[in-house]
Amino acid sequence: MLDFLSANTRAVNAQRAALEALEMAFGTTTPHCELLLLNATVGHDLVALTNHITAQCPGTRVLAASCAGVVGREGPGESMHDIALMGVRGEGCTVAHIDGLFGSTSFAKGVELGTQLLTSPQPVRMVYLLASGIDIANDQLIAGMEHVLGTEVVIFGATSSDQMQGVATFQAIDGAIHQHAAFAVGIWDPTLTVDTQATHGFVATGEPMVVTAADGNRIIELDGHPAWPTFLQRLGLPPTATEADTIPIGALAEALPANLAAEYGNDHILRVVTHHSLDGDIIYATECAVGTELWLTVRDEDRIFRDMDRMMTAMTSRNPGRSPIAVFQADCLARGRRLFNRVMKEELVHRMQQPFASDGVVPPWFGMYGFGEYAQLGGRNAYHNYTTSLAALYRTGETSS
């Protein structure tokens, strides 16, 4: 049976950050767990953090990822030196990992991850997935895993990020650093269930651009012209603009079928552009067929908060009288109230944490501000961008005190 412990802290020195987080999570007891998950903003060296953690917790596997900010029980942290960790103790999970993850290899790598998870002592029921945030066809990665594990398995998690520059994201697996890897924690503990949901709060505007040439997750042309220059022109940006300019304002929207739109609370699902080629191709987050219509969007602050409250009501109503034993969060930096020339996250995080609290205590919480989010939509595994995506893990039969 699995147990979870979490902490988040801020420190420039890697050793101090690791020691403080371990002490916050484990208290005065000697830190020990079978697996430790780590999110760290890009001011930290993932290998150094891993080494300091394993020095304190010999034999613990450490899976780490870069991000633009973290979220934990203590709230959000967006500095260059924030970290969050989740310790996993006991029996009930199996780890898989792969390297060489790109758009063209995404399905095959998903199959490889799923095949590794078949070695679990019992069938995997849910998967925490952390994948590279650049040049990946996330829908195909999901499809590859489902090809092996079945569509009943619930996939939740995130894709790693940098400081929203679209340059490079990092994953560290047992101290080895990668840029195009993924790791998956297959949870087979039969006492656990998971509930996931996502919401964004952006609104599509204007006339859509139409994909007129594409290859897998590469959009080659929009409206018959090179994709990246056309995208920049529609955003009102100069030809010299980079992903650092487009990511905060350039959410692209795809229309959803009516049944999924009703559940989502929005007519569109969003996609982020994290990379482009020298030839002017847009490296998209999923495969994108010719004929797909893509709208630009605007951020609707009132709707972000309104839809967040609606999502929390839905999640708590599906689990009446129960408190989760752990929550995994994947989020976007563009969410929250825009104040003081930055988007403030504290209120939004408070509004998602309090409904899950028991006697005012927030459960172990592990989150990141990354490039993308995995959560179910319409009862199927799905990939999202610019959302808050939550996965709440419950112990079978447990209710709140």
Write up what this structure looks like:
- With 401 residues, the chain is an alpha+beta fold.
- The protein folds into two domains: 3-199 and 304-395, no CATH class; 202-299, no CATH class.
- Helix content is 23%, strand content 37%.
- The strands form five sheets. Strands 14, 15, 16, 17, 18, 19, 20 and 21 form an eight-stranded antiparallel β-sheet that branches. A six-stranded mixed β-sheet has the order 1-6-2-3-10-11, covered by helices on one side.
- α3 runs parallel beside α4.
- The longest helix is centred in the C-terminal third of the chain and has 17 residues, at 301-317.
- It is globular.
- The two termini are 21 Å apart.
Please give the largest β-sheet: 8 strands, antiparallel
Shape: globular
Beta percentage is 35-45%
Tally of helical segments: 9
**What's the mean pLDDT score?**
95
- How far the N terminus sits from the C terminus, by CA atoms, comes to 21 Å
State the secondary-structure class. Answer: alpha+beta
Instruction: Outline the low-pLDDT stretches.
Output: none
Radius of gyration: 20 Å
Number of strands: 28
Domains counted in the coordinates: how many?
A: 2
As a percent range, the share of helical residues equals 10-25%
Describe, in short, the structure shown.
By secondary structure, this protein is of the alpha+beta class. The protein has helices at 14-26, 46-56, 106-117, 138-149, 227-235, 243-246, 258-264, 301-317, 346-353, and strands at 3-10, 35-41, 61-67, 70-72, 75-77, 82-89, 93-98, 126-131, 154-159, 171-173, 176-178, 182-187, 192-199, 202-215, 218-222, 225-226, 252-255, 268-271, 275-276, 282-283, 293-299, 326-331, 337-339, 342-344, 365-369, 372-377, 380-384, 388-395.
